[in-house]
Specification:
By secondary structure, this protein is an alpha/beta fold. It has helices at 20-31, 44-54, 66-76, 99-127, 138-142, 148-168, 186-189, 193-201, 211-222; strands at residues 11-14, 35-40, 57-60, 81-84, 130-135, 173-180, 233-236. A seven-stranded parallel beta sheet has the order 3-2-1-4-5-6-7, with helices on both faces. Helix 1 packs parallel to helix 2 (44-54). The longest helix is centred in the middle third of the chain and has 29 residues, at 99-127.
Length: 242
């Protein structure tokens, strides 16, 4: 029986795959049949547990460093799928934001996408096949108070990916964006209850998302069922971004 959005025989690398959305994506791609490499910077035990569950392997790397990102991609082998999920927040008002808080967010969230895509693109172009999915955020589309650095990094991912889709399309390599709304992860657990209630009231589906909600969309975009989809920003946000 044919499985919808099967990734059988494909090699997939997921950065930031040890927890949260990245973990859910790695598990979903594994269920789809992919050979999954779980990239991580921290959380070795968690990453190795994910890799064990999907029958893949975990590789430590700091994707904000160009050399480390390149080594990670090379260690993955002949990639069919690249999912860039690694990210962090350093929230604060602009007037109080340090240079380090700006740089660390831009380097981890945005520069890492450039580094890994650059490392993976040549091999995918040679094969004339490949799917890249970069994880942005509703904050990159609409902005958010106290998150100028995070919003800039996530908006940058959108512009980067649209440009990449134009560059790689003639070689049958697709590049898309998934922009989650507010999803229950370690990043949102620290939000005050009042902020969560505000989000919920603005979300037509009336709940925060689960990491698995995002993972299913990523699986589709990585699969051959999405073979005519590129340069798209898919909002997975319960209607928040309407």
């Amino acid at each position: 029986m044919t499985t919808f959005a099967s990734l059988e025989g494909k090699v997939a690398l997921v950065t930031g795959g040890s927890r949260g959305i990245g973990r859910a994506i790695a598990l979903e791609l594994g269920r789809a049949g992919a050979d999954v490499i779980v990239g991580y910077r921290t959380g070795r035990e968690e990453a190795e547990a994910v890799a064990t569950e999907v029958g893949g392997r975990a590789v430590e790397a700091d994707v904000s460093d160009p050399g480390s990102a390149r080594t990670l991609v090379e260690s993955a082998g002949e990639l069919d799928v690249l999912v860039n999920n690694a990210g962090l927040t350093r929230d604060g008002l602009l007037v109080r934001m340090s240079d380090e808080d700006w740089r660390s967010v831009i380097d981890t969230n945005l520069s890492s996408v450039f580094y890994t895509c650059r490392a993976a693109a040549r091999g995918m172009m040679r094969k004339r096949a490949g799917a890249i999915v970069n994880i942005s955020s509703i904050v990159g589309v609409h902005g958010n108070w106290g998150q100028t650095n995070y919003a800039a990094s996530k908006a940058g991912i959108i512009g980067f990916t649209k440009s990449l889709a134009r560059e790689l399309g003639s070689r049958n390599v697709r590049a898309n964006v998934v922009a989650p709304g507010y999803v229950t992860t370690q990043l949102t657990d620290v939000l005050p209850d009042e902020a969560k209630e505000t989000m919920l009231s603005a979300t037509p589906l009336g709940r925060l998302g689960d990491p698995e909600d995002v993972a299913g969309s990523v699986r589709f975009l990585c699969s051959d069922e999405a073979r005519f989809v590129t340069g798209v920003v898919l909002h997975v946000d319960g209607g928040l971004g309407m």
